[in-house]
Amino acid sequence: MSGEDKQEKYVTCVKNIEFHAAHATPVNGAPLLHGHTFIVHACVEGELTKGGWVVDFTLLSNIVKDVINQEYNFRLLLNREDASKVKIIAPFNVRITYVNGPPTAELLAKDICQKLSKRMLEESIPHSSIKAYRVTVCEGNDLCAEYMTHFTRE
Q1: Based on the structure, what is the number of domains in the chain?
Q2: How many CB atoms lie within 10 A of CB 97?
Q3: If DSSP states are collapsed to H, E and C, what string results for 109-140?
Q4: Phi, psi (degrees; rounded to nearest 5) at 100
Q5: 96-104, long-range: CB < 8 A, 24+ apart
Q6: CB-based contacts of 73: which residues, under 8 Å, 6+ apart?
Q7: What is the pLDDT of residue 26?
Q8: Which of 28, 32, 108, 136 has the fewest CB atoms found within 10 Å of its own CB?
Q9: What is the pLDDT of residues 66-100, one digit of tens each?
Q10: Strand 10-27 vs strand 30-46: parallel, antiparallel, or unpaired?
Q11: Under DSSP, is residue 51 helix (H, G, I), strand (E, B) or coil?
Q12: b/e map of 116-138 (b: 16 or more CB within 10 Å)?
């Protein structure tokens, strides 16, 4: 293989960021409200900066944690279509986050990925060097779903 055929890829990841939430998804075929300790891994693929990294670990970690804490941690995660169908009367506060579709790990990964990408733009991270974002959401340690978005530039 010649040096011209070789493609290098750099990926910076933060892993094992936890949040606690409840969601209503099918369990054995029937919708069931239940909760998890969700675990998130977030990766950014791109070209190296002059500093020798894709993105600073601390910055990436802080953004992912901030998105999770503001939007998902200690929340009831529901499908936006169900907003008018849910009525909670309780002697405690319930914080609800609506997602576009059923709050499955797959769609939570997509939602977090989109929010991460938006926040990176707001933080003036040079998107010209970023090629992809990948977010994995696990329900516990062994049930995971991943969403990845690639950018093509002309």
Answers
A1: 1
A2: 18
A3: HHHHHHHHHHHHHHCCCCHHHEEEEEEEEEEC
A4: -80, 90
A5: 97/21, 97/71, 97/72, 102/25, 103/23, 103/24, 103/25, 103/77, 103/78, 103/79, 104/23, 104/25, 104/145
A6: 19, 20, 21
A7: 81
A8: 28
A9: 999 999 999 999 999 988 988 888 899 999 999 99
A10: antiparallel
A11: coil
A12: bbebbeeeebeeeebbbbbbbbb
On whether residue 97 sits in a domain, the answer given is yes
142: which 2 tokens?
A: 């062994």
For the chain, percent helix, then strand, then coil, each to nearest 5?
Answer: 25, 40, 35
Tokens of 134: 């990948």
User: CA–CA separation, 145 vs 135, rounded Å?
Assistant: 8
Specify if 109 maps to a domain: yes
SS3 84: helix
**Full domain range(s) for residue 113:** 10-19+35-150
Does any domain span residue 127? yes
pLDDT tens for residues 118-149?
998 887 766 668 899 999 999 988 999 999 99
